Amino acid sequence: MNADEKKIVTRMVSIYCRLVHGSKTQLCDECDALLTYAHLRLERCPFEEEKPTCASCPVHCYKPDMRQKIKEVMRTAGPRMLFLHPIDTIKHFHKERQRDRHFVAKEKSSKKTE
Ligand SMILES: [Zn+2]
Hints:
The chain has one domain (3-110). Helix content is 71%, strand content 0%. It has four helices and no strands. The chain is globular, with a radius of gyration of 15 Å. By secondary structure, the protein is an all-alpha fold. Helix 1 packs antiparallel against helix 2 (29-44) and helix 3 (64-84) crosses helix 4 (86-110). Zinc ion binds at residues 17, 21, 23, 27-28, 30-31.
């Protein structure tokens, strides 16, 4: 479970580390810790296959500082993922959209906005 998510997050962190921290083959300590943390969260995610993206997840299981870091990683590496790994990325975002729709539909019935 969540094997694809792990692959994606691993790639995003390595892209980010290379761009921002100038690492060559290995992640710096900070990014290594972040990746380990992200994998652990995926393993413990109560939604498993049904989960929305971490960005829209209602649980917000990340600690605030880790959340800040992973958001930064996604903002920086996200657009580049599309060029480097288009198939995986499109598959990932397609899956995300379906999950999001599921969650947004639930949310909308409880509070009326827009
Ligand atoms: Zn780094």
